[in-house]
Write a structure and sequence with these properties.
This protein has 579 residues and is an alpha/beta fold. α5 crosses α19 (512-527) and α6 (91-102) packs parallel to α19. It is globular and about 70 Å long. The structure holds flavin-adenine dinucleotide (FAD) and 2-acetamido-2-deoxy-beta-D-glucopyranose (3 copies). One 2-acetamido-2-deoxy-beta-D-glucopyranose is lined by residues 70, 75-76, 524, 528. Belongs to the flavin monoamine oxidase family. FIG1 subfamily.
Length: 579
């Protein structure tokens, strides 16, 4: 059931006791050396502890271990290879394409953009070589499926420093180091109640969750979550959470919980399970875009860039997928497939013409998807001045427009994530020119670190507003309280030959691993589908494209003779990635 499908990271305990990434075979081997009785006892303790924690129970995906197996061993090899078109070369599309093609299916990936990766997007500064993650940047240790995927692809992970005690919080013109905020948040000027004083912001949040914990115990996971879906986080914190208004304001300002204030409490709970300064995080050495790249180079099949899908027609034997080639031609190319996997975001799916149309419940579910904006502003400095303040990563918080500043770790250069805003806070940067956005972020960095930083800025920077991205048209999904209590598993059921995956189709929204899980689920379904196999045997599984002589990459875009089509074609088995 969808409500059981959480991030398996949160428990109040897990957040306190930082978890190490779980894919550590060495540790496992060491454990074997420990006397068996001891380890048995320990594992039973651990199990008992877990099963007693209702949050943890709610958080588990019932199929998590199965998905982990698929990511480790792959799908069973198919006896009936199908022609599968995957729409979208984000992480969901690429993972599905890889496991399906490994299982023997003929997979073609169609991507609207001129690059792969979607919301995994690494900016690389040509002059300095420094990188900035415009999209995903961290994975919690609990995301074992994603860890396993990275391991299988030979990607190296390293620590992402989420918390550094020497970072700052500045609100109401009061600026304190975060190790002080942890101990005496009332110093920031919030008129806290006596029992709220002297507690870290995280502990205050946990205090408020006590009632939710009782609900989970009393009602059980599904009923409690249904109840939580009906309320906003703000209602909950002030009502059942019994926090004072100043305490709620503190959580909003300091922990950016205000992004969830008017959204569903259930969503806030799921998000918090993966997003807390007390969790351990990793990142991909060399940049997150190595993940989509590694998927691309390990997959046999075609990936077409600049190939936006605009229409889909299902017939009794196959699906016809239309892609729009760029002007001036604007002739639609039609590709045929036995099955289609749609991984584009909600707004992008809404622009596709389906024939026959999507059933009403799916159209409604699509319209109900609530995307929040997310904006990042990077500024490039001549040196990592934060090191002089003994900051080696983590983030500062401010009530100024920039809200959250993330620092590169030592030896990672001086490209500063000067502002990361999402939900309502992202409005501060909406509509600004690039220069205005950079200036605004610089002002806030200067307010926190002193006017000297203006001289250290090298004048360059990057702004990424995901709500304005023509292909994702939003940052990620966070649902408001639901009008109807019918959040069924719409996305897990195919519509004829059309399957769905992507960040918006599973929980917790807004994570890479979620997109991966949804992709694996869809791939399992496609691989085990019974029914007529392809009736058009032979080569050229994608009509009109597979025979094209072009095998060039995006860099040669525009220099193509028109006859070769407007999109770039990648024979991933023959060519290295270049984009
Ligand atoms: C600012 C930001 C920070 C984030 N930080 C993290 C983080 O730290 N950790 C984490 O785990 N997650 C993070 N996330 C979430 C994570 O990036 C996403 O959940 C995940 O990348 C989504 O993958 P996807 O494949 O579902 O969708 P996408 O990556 O959006 O892929 C969909 C693809 O479909 C393509 N497409 C759209 N329409 C069409 C069409 N008509 N035809 C063909 N192709 C089409 C798009 O161009 C895109 O490439 C963050 C997201 C944002 C925006
Ligand atoms: C693979 O096949 C075996 C034996 O038929 C079956 O038990 C298993 O569930 C299959 N695995 C997947 C991922 O479908
Ligand atoms: C991972 O690290 C090893 C050892 O340092 C190195 O040989 C390898 O090239 C790295 N792989 C990637 C993808 O960075
Ligand atoms: C809520 O907090 C107030 C103030 O601390 C306290 O007096 C009251 O008993 C609390 N209510 C509940 C239901 O816990």
């Amino acid at each position: 059931t969808p409500n059981d499908d959480f991030c398996p990271g949160l428990t109040r305990k897990a957040m306190g006791a930082e978890r190490a990434p779980q894919s550590q075979p060495c540790t496992l081997r060491l454990l074997v050396l420990i006397p068996i009785l001891l380890s048995l006892a320990a594992s039973q303790d651990w199990k008992a502890e877990r099963s007693q924690d209702p949050f943890e129970k709610c958080m588990q995906d019932p199929d998590y271990e199965q998905l982990l197996k698929v990511v480790t061993w792959g799908l069973n090899r198919t006896l009936k290879p199908q022609r599968v078109i995957v729409v979208g070369a984000g992480v969901a599309g690429l993972v599905a394409a890889k496991v399906l093609s490994d299982a023997g299916h003929k997979v073609t990936v169609l991507e609207a953009d001129n690059r792969i990766g979607g919301r995994i997007f690494t900016y690389r500064d040509q002059n300095t070589g420094w990188i900035g993650e415009l999209g995903a940047m961290r994975m919690p240790g609990s995301h074992r499926i994603l860890h396993k995927l990275c391991q299988r692809l030979g990607l190296n992970l390293t620590k992402f420093t989420q918390y550094d005690k020497n970072t700052w919080t500045e609100v109401h013109q009061v600026k304190l180091r975060n190790y002080v905020v942890e101990k005496v948040p009332e110093k920031l000027g919030y008129a806290l109640r006596p029992q709220e004083k002297g507690q870290s912001p995280e502990d205050i949040y946990q205090m408020a969750l006590n009632q939710a914990l009782k609900d989970l115990k009393a009602l059980g996971c599904r009923k409690a979550m249904k109840k939580f879906e009906r309320h906003t986080l703000l209602e909950y914190l002030l009502g059942e959470g019994n926090l004072s208004r100043p305490a709620v304001q503190l959580l909003g300002d300091v922990m950016s919980e205000d992004g969830f204030f008017y959204l569903s409490f259930a969503e806030a709970l799921r998000a918090h399970s993966c997003l807390s300064d007390r969790l351990q995080y990793s990142r991909i050495v060399g940049g997150w875009d190595l993940l989509p790249r590694a998927l691309l180079s390990s997959l046999s099949g075609l990936v077409l860039l600049n190939a936006p899908v605009v229409a889909m027609t299902q017939g009794p034997h196959d699906v016809h997928v239309q892609i729009d080639t760029s002007p001036p031609e604007r002739n639609l190319k039609v590709l045929k497939a036995d099955m289609v996997l749609l991984t584009a975001s909600g707004p992008a799916v809404k622009r596709i013409a389906f024939s026959p149309p999507l059933p009403r419940h799916m159209q409604e579910a699509l319209r109900r998807l609530h995307y929040v904006p997310a904006t990042k502003v990077f500024l490039s400095f001549r040196r990592p001045f934060w090191r002089e303040e003994h900051i080696e990563g983590g983030h500062s918080n401010t009530d100024r427009p920039s809200r959250m500043i993330f620092y590169p770790q030592p030896r990672e250069g001086a490209l500063l994530l000067a502002s990361y805003t999402w939900s309502d806070a992202a409005a501060a940067f909406a509509g600004l020119s690039r220069e205005e956005a950079l200036r605004l972020a610089l002002d806030d960095v200067a307010a926190l670190h002193g006017p000297l930083v203006r001289q250290l800025w090298d004048g360059t920077g990057v702004v990424k507003r995901w709500a304005e991205d023509p292909h994702s048209q939003g940052g990620f999904v966070v649902q408001p309280p639901a009008l109807w209590q019918t959040e069924k598993d719409y996305w897990r059921v195919p519509y004829g030959r059309i399957y769905f995956a992507g960040e918006h189709t599973a929980y917790p929204h807004g994570w890479v691993e979620t997109a991966v899980k949804s992709a694996l689920r869809a791939a399992i379904k496609i691989n085990s589908r019974k029914g007529p196999a392809s009736d058009t045997e032979g080569q050229g599984h994608v009509h009109g494209v597979a025979g094209s002589p072009s095998h060039d990459l995006a860099k040669e875009e525009g220099s193509h003779p028109a006859a070769q089509g407007q999109f770039s074609l990648q024979h991933t088995t023959h060519t290295r990635t270049l984009y």
